[in-house]
Amino acid sequence: MKLIEQVAARYQQKFNRQPQFIVRAPGRVNLLGEHVDYNAGLVLPAAIDRATYIACSPAPAPHSTLWAVDYNQMATFSAQSVSAKTQADATPLPEWAFYPAGILWTLLQENLSAPAMNAVFASDVPRGAGLSSSASVELSFMLAWQTLGGWSVPPMQLALLAQKAENRYVGVNCGIMDQFAAACGVEHKALLLDCRSLEWKELALPPDVSIVVADTTIRRKLADSEYNDRRQSCEEAVRFLQKSLPHIHTLRDVRVEDFNRLSDQLPVKTERRARHVVEEIERMNQVEALLAAGDIQTFGQLMNQCQRSLRDLYAVSCPELDALVEIAQTLKGCYGARLTGAGFGGCTVNLVAAAQAEAFALTLAQKYQTQTNLQPEVYITHAARGAEVKWKSE
Ligand code: NG1
Question: What residues in the chain have per-residue pLDDT under 70?
């Protein structure tokens, strides 16, 4: 059964009636521009055809009742209980409920109407795999409350509100990329976002190229502290470099030539990490022209360079990601392969000639399994639409 049918059927089962509407919001891959969103640089994500679906109706105030199909658990909370991160009966919220509760908390802060709801939700975005399952949950609840509340704000604004929920309520200090992609995704297009100005444009991907996602099956551990540690290194690098370059605010403002000239002033680890960011931003400056010219060959080489940099300089890869990428890069039809998202496990993204994509996926899975004894999930995906209402009762 499709996910949309599953949430509808479960809703009927749990609440004894049809939902009023069903919303969906996707996960994403990032094609290039990794660990640069929080350095105010350019990123190139695409929403994918894996998503969170919510079947939803208004409920009598004040309590919202949410069923998480993937956990087979229920949580009940209200505008009153949400700031204490507790349920209606004063027990702590389960961790999965932090995402919807964070959205409610943010909407209340913004004085946007967020009426009580009954909801059933499920997702086929793997968790902790670098595909932004959290942003997909956040944006789907954002859309559900927007629909119930009868207000409307532009998708980028929804993304910023969801990022606030993740930063301030869930407590993950992420950049804007994931929420942006889940809110603004466009079918068959990658999205070039300037994380400083928040201006963005769609870039077409050639129709004869497929996006293949491969999951190491390794789930990241200690990722939040490692992620925050990388952020701190970037900030530290800026403080050092400001002594010679007083005009800079973030690593986005540092040109490669200046960095090379000044890099020996930085502590070794900080220098490596900052170098990844400065060089990745430089790679991103080439992206628009390359895709406009349909030069996937060179674009793929930038992906491969990015992987080496994430592995050797930023140190966010792991042996399983390295193996999956190294195998992919030897296979026929592969233009580029690299880890996607924060790293430390999770998925790789591969750009592959469409005609070879199925054979590529099969061989990649076989070879990875032989080498690691792990059974990866490998699937061909495509750039998909952002958060949307999928169905409404008459
Ligand atoms: P993941 O962990 O893949 O969702 C994280 C951040 C992004 C971005 C990337 C690295 C979260 C929720 N998101 O993505 O903002 O910084 O790492 O480019 O932590």
Answer: 221-223
pTM, whole model, 2 decimals?
0.96
Rounded to an integer, what distance in angstroms lies between the CA atom of residue 8 and that of residue 121? 9
Question: For residue 224, what pLDDT is reported?
Answer: 79
Q: Which of 24, 73, 72, 74 is nearest to 52 (CA)?
A: 24
Q: How far apart are CA 352 and CA 213, in angstroms?
A: 10
Out of 174, 227, 281, 310, give the residue to mutate to test ligand 1, the one with the largest number of ligand atoms within 8 Å of its CB.
Answer: 174
- How far is CA 248 from its chain centroid? 28
Q: Where, residue-wise, is CATH 3.30.70.890 in the chain?
A: 209-381
Closest ligand 1 atom, residue 342 Cα: 17
pLDDT confidence of residue 222: 60
Return the pLDDT at 388.
Answer: 98
Q: Residues 67, 72, 78, 82: what is their CA dihedral angle, to the nearest 10 degrees?
A: -130
CB of 178 closer than 6 A to ligand 1? yes
Q: Residue 86 CB: number of other CB atoms within 10 A?
A: 16
- Residue 265: strand, helix, or coil: helix
Q: Which fold has domain 3-205+384-392?
A: Ribosomal Protein S5; domain 2 (3.30.230)
Looking at domain 209-381, its CATH superfamily turns out to be: GHMP kinase, C-terminal domain (3.30.70.890)
